[in-house]
Amino acid sequence: MTSAPAFDQQIPASASPEVEFISLSHLNPSTELDPVPTRGIDLEYFRTYVRSLEEGGFDYTLLPYGSTTADSFVVASAVGQLTERIKPIVALRPNTTFPLVGAQKLATLDQLTEGRAVVHLISGGSDAEQARQGDYLPKDRRYARTSEYIDLLRRAWTEPAPFSHEGEFYKFDDFGPGFAPHDKPIPISIGGQSDEAFRVGGEKADIFSFWGEPLDDLRAEVERVHGIARAAGRTTLPRIWVTFRPIIAKTDELAWRKAHEYVARIADTFGKAAHGDRRARQGAPQNVGSQRALSFAERAELYDRALWTRTAAVTNAAGASTALVGSPETVAAAILDYVDRGADLVSIRGYDTLADAVDYGRYVLPLVRQELAHRRATGRRGTLQAEHPGNYGEDYRRFATAGRA
Ligand SMILES: Cc1cc2nc3c(=O)[nH]c(=O)nc-3n(C[C@H](O)[C@H](O)[C@H](O)COP(=O)(O)O)c2cc1C
């Protein structure tokens, strides 16, 4: 049991008043639990998946990008046409697309979705992966390029007259006015945890994203990125996105049984390197986000109310991998702990991807939203966090250790 904070009625000053939910769109039924040897798009599955997100009340879906994945722009466009409300977030690596072309593609997506496009800029966490598509810049230069890229995206969307540019990475003459977004500039998000990611994100991004970290660490990082934004003279601070892989069941005890069964299967999948890109999972990761996840996993398995790091440890923290384990109430309360520290975009994606998306929509999202509605209506915290203590309570750690292999 970790020392329990007081969950009195006072809403913390750092709490976000609202939260929006993100998922990640899967293109076929392959999961880390049950890898299916295909790289392809299963259209029926994909349709069902994105419609489940929309019906479940998710607000956004991330379309990830890698050198061997489907193209995130094309998939985002399909999401836009298969749904009415959910916002596609295109993961975009600047090295793959000239900034004015990126701006044009995003503005096209934004018009096709009547204002729903979001872009998540990936500067690249692995030199080897970047080299696969001809990008040989070291990481600090890649972030400098991302910074110039952001300026050019915004100018391409808003400049009313043609303009020329000669910067460190890009040069062009007499461009524009560019194809404009639906009605307002498209939100720009930054993924990455290195010092360079903080600098670019703090100075310029609309959204700054994290993988799931212990609460105190996350809060320190939120203050850091907001401090950089304030020092840059910004009055609108970057929104905070935090990502988890929840494992839920009817009770905390059942969720822990599931978690132990899952981690054995995930470890088996990664051990055999049968799932995904084997090369990406070898050796120490170069991206700071994965390094941080592994160091949390080394320090402890369980943090705060429900954060579990074994799933990161067995996957070399390749991608978002930290879990929240418990009943829907415990996991919703854990999400609220992060909302209390300033997160206002929460990404949850399970290991049993489609079934979990449906379950989160039914059982987790409404609890979080209900609590925030209660806070708005009364100015006071509700009882969910006090009544579902998870690891702050008596039995939870026993369940957590009971099923350990
Ligand atoms: C929420 C989130 C989503 C991400 N999505 C992708 C992705 O789709 N493709 C990718 O190559 N990297 C992705 N990343 C990884 C990092 O953005 C990438 O490793 C970063 O550019 C460099 O990492 P560093 O600054 O932490 O060292 C994502 C990171 C976060 C936090």
TrEMBL record:
InterPro entries per UniProt: Luciferase-like_dom, Luciferase-like_sf, SsuD_RutA_monooxygenase
Presence of keyword Oxidoreductase: yes
Keyword Disulfide bond (UniProt): no
Pfam (any one): Bac_luciferase
Keywords for the protein's UniProt record, in alphabetical order: Flavoprotein, FMN, Monooxygenase, Oxidoreductase
Residue ranges constituting the Luciferase-like domain according to the UniProt record: 37-344
Annotated SUPFAM superfamilies: Bacterial luciferase-like
One annotated GO molecular function: monooxygenase activity
Record-given protein name: LLM class flavin-dependent oxidoreductase
Source organism: Saccharothrix syringae (Nocardiopsis syringae)
